[in-house]
Amino acid sequence: MTTLFAKIVRGEIPADIVYQDDSVTAFRDINPVAPTHILIVPNKVIPTVNDLTAADEQVAGHMLVVAAKIAAEEGIAEDGYRLIINCNEYGGQVVFHLHMHLVGGRPLGQMVLRPR
User: Fold this and answer.
1) pTM, whole model, 2 decimals?
2) From 3.30.428.10, 3.90.850.10, 3.30.565.10, 3.30.70.270, which CATH number describes the 4-104 domain?
3) Domain ranges, ordered by start, for the chain
4) Long-range contacts of 50-58 (CB under 8 A, 24+ apart)
5) What is the mean pLDDT of residues 49-59?
6) pLDDT digits (tens, 9 = 90+) for 71-96
7) Is 99 marked active-site?
8) CB–CB of 5/41 below 8 Å?
9) Among 37, 62, 97, 99, which one carries the catalytic annotation?
């Protein structure tokens, strides 16, 4: 399966890549919602969180470690940031290649607005 993100990982589509190793790639979101908005994706296509298996535990954990490293490099670790993984339609997932949003650089407010 190929996805937009897989093409970025392979260098077929240009992106502002901030980190890449054998397991994950991180690049700036083209429609940022905050001063820092970086997507961290496994290099292997995993469609959703629901598709993770025990064999994917290392890459899933590595995504978190990479997020913390990038947050420090971006200067947002001390003030704080948010990590978001959307899953399927109701969760707001648009690209079906597992990805984590690293968002920060300003106060982010409530994570989810409560119904009135």
Assistant:
1) 0.94
2) 3.30.428.10
3) 4-104
4) 50/87, 50/88, 51/98, 52/98, 58/23
5) 98
6) 999 999 999 999 999 999 999 999 99
7) yes
8) yes
9) 99
